[in-house]
Amino acid sequence: MSLLFRLKLxxxxxxxxxxxxxxxxxxxxxxxxxWKTRSGSAVEFPAPFGRDLTKxxxxxxxxxxxxxxxxxxxxxxxxxRIWTVVAGGGASVxxxxxxxxxxxxxxxxxxxxYSGDPSETQTFEYAKTxxxxxxxxxxHPQGKVLIIGGSIANFTNVAKTFGGIVRAFEVFLExxxxxxxxxxxxxxxxxxxxxxxxxxxxAQKLDLxxxxxxxxxxxxSIVGPALGISELPAVPHxxxxxxxxxxxxxxxxxxxxxxxxxxxxxxxxxxxxHDNEVHENYDSLFEKNTKAIVWGxxxxxxxxxxxxxxxxxxxxxSVVASTYPFTGDNKQKYYFGHREILxxxxxxxxxxxxxxxxxxxxxxxxxxxSVYETVLEALQFPQIRVIAIIAEGVPENQTRKLIKxxxxxxxxxxxxxxxxxxxxxxxKIGNTGGxxxxxxxxxxxxxxxxxxxxxxxxxxxxxxxxxxxxxDGVFEGIAIGGDRYPGSTYTDHILRYEKDDRQVDPGxxxxxxxxxxxxxxxxxxxxxxYKKR
Length: 533
Hints:
Blueprint: E1 2-10, E2 13-22, H1 28-31, H2 55-65, E3 70-75, E4 82-87, H3 89-101, E5 110-115, H4 120-134, E6 144-150, H5 158-171, H6 173-178, E7 181-186, H7 192-206, E8 210-213, H8 223-227, E9 291-295, H9 299-311, E10 319-323, E11 330-336, E12 339-346, H10 349-355, E13 359-364, H11 371-378, E14 386-389, H12 396-409, E15 412-414, E16 421-423, E17 427-428, H13 436-441, E18 450-454, H14 457-470, E19 474-479, H15 490-498, E20 512-516, H16 523-531
Parallel strand pairs: 4-6, 6-7, 7-8, 9-10, 9-13, 10-12, 13-14, 14-15, 18-19, 18-20
Antiparallel strand pairs: 1-2, 3-5, 11-12, 16-17, 16-19
C-alpha cells in the first residue's frame, strides 16, 4: 500500500489535511481485514475502463478467481466483427496491436487471453461465453471473423484447450453459420499436432470455414487474411526433427556420468563454434555444469529439465534435489535418457543446500501466498546465485523487498510471473522451451549466437522458433516476467550479455542480443540483422 499526504505546516506543527491510499489488489489475501471499511465491508476495487463489468466479463472474472490458470475477457465493441481467442498475455498484445496496425481497430470486438494450462472445461466455458456475445443480434453484412491465435506454448496443453473450443463450436454451430463466421487458427506448443487435428476434423464435421496453421507459420500472418487485406500464408515446409543422434551406441548408460561424443548426422551435426566450458570472466548465470534445486512437487517440470539435459549431452543432470516442507525426506524416480535415476527430495531447504553445495540455482514453484518466505529463506544460503520465481500475483511490496535483499547478497532474481529462461546446450528453467519436439525444432540443444530478453513466456518460446529459423540459434533467453517490479530488468541482462564475447550487439560480427520491451515480434529485424553477417 502507498500513501499520499496533503500536509499543512503551522508554526512548529504539521497537520494532515488529506490522504489517499493506493492498494495493491494482489495483496488482498494479506490485508483484506485491514482494508475493511468502518462498517466492516470489504474494500471494492474499481472496474477497469471506468465502467461496470458486463455479465460475460463478470462470469470470466469469477472463473479466473477460482483457477490457477489465467482467463481474461474485456468486451470492447459488442457489434464488432473481429473477435479473438488468444492464448498468452504477450501474444494477446501482439495480435491486438496487429489488428489495429492493419486498420481493424474500429471493428475489434474484444481483448482477452487464456493461459496457464486451463482445463478443457475452463476453455470450453471461456469460448462459449465469447461466442454467445459474438453471435448475438442480427448478422453482420460482411460476416464475422474469429482469430484463434497464440504463441508456441511452454506447458499449456494445446490439444486439451482446443478440445474445449471445439465443444463450444458444437454448441453454437447454428448461430456460427447464421452469422457467417470465418475462423483462422495458428498455434504451437505441447500436443499442438493433436489440437490442430481436432480443429481440422471439426471444420469438416461441422462444415465451418476454418483455416489452420501451426508453428511453421508466423504468429500474426493469419491477421491479414482475416481482415481481407492479404492472401492466406503459404504453408512452409516443416523441417523434420529427430532425436536419432542420441541413440549412438557410444553413449554411456551404465553410470551416472555420460561421456562426450560427437553429434551424428542431421540437424545435430550443425557445427557451433562455442566452448561450453565454464568461463570465469563472463558474468554468466548458467553453464554446462550448473546445478539446481527445485522447490515444490513439480515432477513434470523436473523431468522436462532432465530431458533437456540429455539432448544437450550434459555429463550429469542439472537437478540435484527438490525440496518441499510438507513431505518427508524421500527419493523420486526420474529418467535421464533411457536410464532411471533417483533424485532426493528434502523436507528442509537448509538440508537440501547443505547436502548439495554445488547447487547455485533455485527454481521455486511456491504459490503467491508462500513465495515471499520461501525466497527469503533461500537467500540465506551463500551458494545461491540465481532464484527463478514462477509464481504470478506476488504482492508488489513483497517483490520490492525481495529485490532489495537479493541485490545486497548479489543474487539474480528471475521473475516473478515468469516461465524462466533457457541457455541452449547448458541449462533450462522449469517448463521453458516447451516439449522435446520444440526443443529439437528450435535447435535449443546447442548454443547459437543470439541472446534475447522478454517479458512474456509465450513470446520467449516464439522467439526461440524465430531465431532458430533465421540464425544459427539462441545463445541465451530470459523471460523476466510481466509484473510491475521484475526481479531483474532488461538492462540487467543486456549489460550481462555485453560482457560475454560469445555474442555481441546487433550489427557486429559474432551475433547480437535483443530485448522485447513492447512485446512485439521481431522476426523481420532478426532476419535482416543476421543476414548482414
